[in-house]
């Protein structure tokens, strides 16, 4: 039996609908149906809150697998870069707390640099797929900031970090993580032209007012109060950070240091 004209129209309509869905929900949309994406996000959130290296390494592996299956999904690549960034941050924070702030060994430096490089590669690929995603620019800035450890590295990488964070803030001025990244750069003496510590602190206060669970904002406020020689205000911020997340690496040491000085 030959197909009727109505059947041809139905087939044509389905093909057009499929094409439209492909345009509206491109490759990155298909990965959203993958249950392992949700699992990776859970691991990333849990590992970040607990500052647990093992959980974050599982998140990295999860997103690596997703990226191999969905190489054109900008969100998967963003989360992969985010997992690397959190792993670097946790490694460095825990290392500083457990070893009294001494310089890392050559092997530890290589591990940090490898994760930073992989994180940067992932976020660059994500931005190539979707340039107008503010969180990706913010994360790129945070990865550059992670390389700032002293005067020389500040000169080499500071401007790149600031440029990326500025781009994120231009796109989304109230983006809490972009403001946190600005705060981080301010503590590193990178964000020193135009916006002084007070203006950055004002933005961070707005962040904690709207997002009281973001412990990083409290810690950065504490560090900036210390830079301004305001130890009592710094102590209040550190104590608030401890209340939000007692697992935050180094928070106990920050509190004890101030108490000892008074």
Structure description:
- This protein has helices spanning 5-24, 27-31, 35-50, 53-69, 74-98, 106-129, 134-145, 151-171, 176-187, 197-210, 215-227, 231-244, 251-261.
- Residues 16-29 have low confidence and may be disordered.
- The chain is built from 13 helices and no strands.
- α5 (74-98) packs parallel to α7 (134-145).
- With 262 residues, the chain is mainly α.
- The chain has a domain at 196-262: Alpha Horseshoe (Serine Threonine Protein Phosphatase 5, Tetratricopeptide repeat), CATH 1.25.40.10.
- The longest helix is centred in the first third of the chain and has 25 residues, at 74-98.
- Helices cover 78% and strands 0% of the residues.
List the keywords.
single chain; 262 residues; 0% strand; Serine Threonine Protein Phosphatase 5, Tetratricopeptide repeat; mainly alpha
CATH fold node name of the domain at 196-262: Serine Threonine Protein Phosphatase 5, Tetratricopeptide repeat
Number of helices: 13
Structural shape: globular
Q: End-to-end distance, in Å?
A: 93 Å
Short description:
The chain is mainly α. It contains 13 helices and no strands.
List the helices and strands and how they pair.
Elements: H1 5-24, H2 27-31, H3 35-50, H4 53-69, H5 74-98, H6 106-129, H7 134-145, H8 151-171, H9 176-187, H10 197-210, H11 215-227, H12 231-244, H13 251-261
Helix pairs in contact: 3-4, 3-5, 4-5, 5-6, 5-7, 6-7, 7-8, 7-9, 8-9, 9-10, 9-11, 10-11, 11-12, 12-13
């Amino acid at each position: 039996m030959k197909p009727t004209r109505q059947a041809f129209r139905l087939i044509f309509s389905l093909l057009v609908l499929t094409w439209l869905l492909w345009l509206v929900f491109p490759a990155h949309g298909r990965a959203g149906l993958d249950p392992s994406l949700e699992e990776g996000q859970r691991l990333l959130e849990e590992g970040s809150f607990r500052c647990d290296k093992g959980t974050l390494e599982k998140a990295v592996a999860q997103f690596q697998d997703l990226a191999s299956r969905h190489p054109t999904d900008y969100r998967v690549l963003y989360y992969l870069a985010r997992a690397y960034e959190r792993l670097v941050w946790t490694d460095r924070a825990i290392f500083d707390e457990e070893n009294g702030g001494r310089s890392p060994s050559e092997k530890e430096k290589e591990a940090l640099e490898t994760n930073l490089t992989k994180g940067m590669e992932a976020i660059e690929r994500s931005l190539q797929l979707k340039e107008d995603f503010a969180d990706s620019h913010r994360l790129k800035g945070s990865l550059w900031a992670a390389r700032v450890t002293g005067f020389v590295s500040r000169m080499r990488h500071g401007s790149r970090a600031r440029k990326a964070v500025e781009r994120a803030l231009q796109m989304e001025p109230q983006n809490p993580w972009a403001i946190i990244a600005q705060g981080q750069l301010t503590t590193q003496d990178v964000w020193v032209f135009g916006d002084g510590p007070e203006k950055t602190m004002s933005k961070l206060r707005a962040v904690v007012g709207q997002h009281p669970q973001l412990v990083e904002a409290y810690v950065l406020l504490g560090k900036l109060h210390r830079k301004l020689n305001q130890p009592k205000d710094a102590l209040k911020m550190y104590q608030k950070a401890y209340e939000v997340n007692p697992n935050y690496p180094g928070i106990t040491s920050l509190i004890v240091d101030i108490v000892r000085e008074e």
